[in-house]
Structures are given as structure tokens and as C-alpha cells.
Amino acid sequence: MPEVVDSKTIFSLLEVSRSVQKTIADRYKSLYWIKAEMNKLNHYTHSGHCYPELVEKKDGKIVAEMRSTLWKADFQRINQLFMKVLGEPLREGITILFQAAIAYDPLYGFSLKIIDIDPTFVLGELEKEKRESIRKLQEEGLFDANKRLVFPMIAKRLAIISVETSKGLSDFFKIIRGNPWGYRFEYSLFPALLQGDKSIPSIIRQLAIIAERLSDFDAVAIIRGGGGEVGLSSYNNYLLSKAIAMFPIPVITGIGHSTNETVSEMVAYKNAITPSELADFLIQKFHQFAIPVDESLRRIVEATKARFLLEEQHLHAFSRAISWSSKAVLSNQGNELRSLQLQLQLYTKQLFKDRATEINNVDRLLRLADPKELLKRGFSITRVNGRAISSEASVSAGQVLETTLFEGKLSSSVLK
């Protein structure tokens, strides 16, 4: 009960708190569906309870903030539902639609007691952001900007945005380093966060750093492992998608196993579902260049051999013609023979001079086409039973391969 001192009615803090508690309990008796951004989940593993921090933002500024509680049993049930619907657990940094009771405690103050969270609402919010980003980029004429760039004949020098410990990056390196043709790539790693709201400025910042060194790279690769819809939500962000679309060299992506393509993947020059598929794409580009080079070398060698054979036949025919003419002249006109011999010497000398020039030109072509010159530039030749391999169909498991490098040879066995 309040005290009366000098005609003043005085309430204790506990009395005021309990009055507020009673008023709120009488006023808010129902459960309410509320939309807010989960700024922090605050999950305590020792108790299993969560104390989420909820906020509402307008124009990037927080206009409302409130504490909440999510007890262990409810958290476990909701988390399982998120895993089933979204493919990943409940996490912070997303907008949620939740059912809660409004409560006030004299000791802990005002809070919301979360009973349930709708995972399908999260999907809807992500889809809404995705459509809005696509609309803006299309209106600005940027949606296909990166796709309109000319991709290098060989994308040998790569700027990679990823995390060094990423499983996806490890898969990517395993394939490009172990390609059976010995194609060599050069790459620089630009570490960035790959998930959550903080990944957006992190990736954009690394793109800006790469842009200052454009002459060092042929393409940019953004690589991460797999994830659910929520984990990929940052790649629907308008600012990140715009940075990729406007980038002055091709951007290629391998950011997950999701079947729902993000806006960042849509605007990139090339999107691969997995980092492994992205590595295969780059190797195929190398292969498309190497095969015509090998074919051109074969044609040069064959054409050179044919030319030598033809010239040899011409020389033999000319020699026989000289022999027959000389005998006829010798039997009839000795004086004319001497004159003819002189003319023949001059003609033969000029002929051999011309043929020597042609042979020198052919010799230079052969030296340029020498496989050793190609091996010096990082190419290699792989043979099985002495025959060069141009298709995996010509090789079977268990066979021994011999790979010729510029310096030395390697032997390997086909596993599959």
C-alpha cells in the first residue's frame, strides 16, 4: 500500500511495477502475430534458451527495439521446422513473423514471449527482396551488363573472392590443380565473409580492391559452399548484385547447391551450381583453345612433309631432263654444249638459291610448330601406348599414362 507523507502519496518501485504488470496482463491477454528483424538470436547453449533482440528499421535506422524470450522447447521445435522448410536453422539477421505474448516483469521489464515463428514468411520476404532487386537492375539497364562483356579466350589469371577454409574453394582447387592436361592457372585470393548481412559490404569491398588491379586478372570468381535459401539471401541484395553487374571484367560464380538462383548469380557472366562445376567450365575454356592449336600443329607438319616430297620429285625430274638434253647436244654441237653448260650452271645456281630460301622458310615454320615450344609455355602432351590422348573415351581405368613436359616426363595411372 502507498504511504502518505506530508500530504503526498508515495508508491514504492515494486508497487508501480506490479501495477504496470497487472495493467499489461489485463490489456494484452491474447497472442499476437508480429513482424520484426531478429538482430541477435542470443542462444545460450548451457540452458538451451534464447533471448532474441528484435528491431524494426526504417530507411536503415532503428525505429523500435524490444527484448524477447524463446524457451528451449519452443526453440528446438521451431529450429526443426526451419531445417525442414528452409534447409538451415533459425538464425539472426533475418526478418521473421512470430507469434508472441506481451509480458512485463517487475525485475526484467517489458518483453515478448515468442511461442512460434513462421518459416514460410521468411521465404516470402526473401522472394520480395529478390524481385525488387531484379526490377531496379532492369530499369537501370544493368541486369545483363556483365554478360555482355567478352570472355577471354583463356581465363588463366583469376581473382577469387572466398574464404580460405571454404569446402567449396577446396573442391575448386582440387579440380583445376589436378586437371589431366596440365593446364596452369594463376590466382589471388581475396578473403570475404560469404553469408549473412555482413557478407554484402565484405564482398563489395573486395570487388573494389580487385578493380584497382584489373590488368592483373582475366576474370573474378566468387566461390562458397552449399547452403539453404536463407544462407544465400545476401546474394539477392540490390547493392551487391549491382556491383557484380557493373564490374568491368567477367564475374563467374559458384556459390552453392541451391536450385533457386539468386540475383547475384543471374547478373554474373557465368553461374555454376557448384564450385566444382565452375572449375570444369574454366578447364573446358582452356581445352577449346588447346585442341585447335594441336590440330594446327598437325596440319603444319603434314603440309611441310608434303612440300618437301614435291620439291624432291621436281629436282629428280629436272636432273633427268638435264641429262637427256646434255647427251643430245654433245652428239651434235660441242660448242653449243659449252654454252648450254654455262647457262645451266647459272640457272641451277639460281634455282638452288630459290629452293634454299623456301626450305629455310619451311624450317622456321617447323621450329615454331615444334611441340617443345608449346611445352615451354606450360602445355603438356599425355600419351597412352605411345598415342597422344585427345578424348577421355580413348582411355580406360588401369592404363598407364605418360605425360611429357618441357623438362622431364611423368607417369600416372587412370583410376576412373
The span between the termini is 86 Å
Q: Which spans have pLDDT < 50 for at least 5 consecutive residues?
A: none
**What overall geometry do the principal axes of the alpha carbons give?**
rod-shaped
CATH superfamily of the largest domain: Response regulator
Structural class: alpha/beta
Give the fraction of residues assigned to helices: 40-55%
**Sequence of strands across the biggest β-sheet:** 3-4-5-7-6
DSSP strand tally: 16
> How many distinct domains?
3
Beta-strand residue percentage? 15-25%
If you compute it from the alpha carbons, what radius of gyration comes out, rounded to the nearest whole angstrom? 38 Å
CATH architecture of the largest domain: 3-Layer(aba) Sandwich
CATH topology heading of the largest domain: Rossmann fold
Q: What is the count of DSSP helices, taking H or I runs of 4+ residues?
A: 10
CATH class bucket of the largest domain = Alpha Beta
Mean pLDDT: 86
Helix-strand string: EEHEEEHEEHEHEHEHEHEHHHEEEE
Largest sheet: 5 strands, mixed, barrel
